[in-house]
Design a protein that fits this description.
mainly beta, four-stranded antiparallel β-sheet, 2 helices, 7 strands, rod-shaped, binds zinc ion
Length: about 150
């Protein structure tokens, strides 16, 4: 966990308008059907815009999920551009506002990155477009060790 911060103090940005560069290797908890075997690289530039913040940058890393058909592990490469407006308080139309990513001077980096990744990941991943899934007879992958006859 060395060199990682789950949240960032953005008081300087909010109160003085100073730009803040954030570079973190951020460990993420599992969410949805995805897990994160290694920390993701987060590079953000945070600026003040009006009463809120403008967060731009990139999130790089990889997620692991299970193929929706055969349940094999699937690695999903993440290379995301981030461009988010964050408003203080939760009474705005900002889709991130309701989750209180910005709480006073604390920006919940982990939650923000989690939401960015969550909206970028597909609901279901496949190990390959041609994945034939599992055999309903033997339970093995149909294009693997299954030797059952499959009339089609
Ligand atoms: Zn598969
Ligand atoms: Zn089979």
């Amino acid at each position: 966990m060395k060199g990682t911060r789950a949240s960032v103090d953005v008081g300087g940005v909010l109160h003085t308008g100073r730009e803040l560069e954030v570079r973190e290797a951020l460990a993420l908890p599992d969410f949805g059907s995805f897990s994160f075997p290694a920390p993701v690289d987060v590079t953000f530039t945070i600026r003040r815009i009006g009463r809120g913040l403008d967060v731009r940058g990139t999130v790089d890393g990889s997620a692991e999920g299970a193929c929706a058909r055969c349940l094999d592990d699937v690695k999903v490469h993440l290379e995301l551009d981030v461009d988010e407006r964050l408003e203080p308080g939760s009474d705005t139309g900002d889709p991130l506002g309701e989750n209180n990513v910005l709480n006073g001077d604390q920006l919940d980096l982990q939650d923000l990155v989690r939401q960015v990744i969550d909206s970028a990941l597909p609901l279901a991943v496949l190990c390959g477009e041609a994945c034939a899934g599992l055999c309903t007879t033997c339970g093995h992958k149909r294009d693997g060790i299954c030797r059952c006859a499959h009339p089609e």
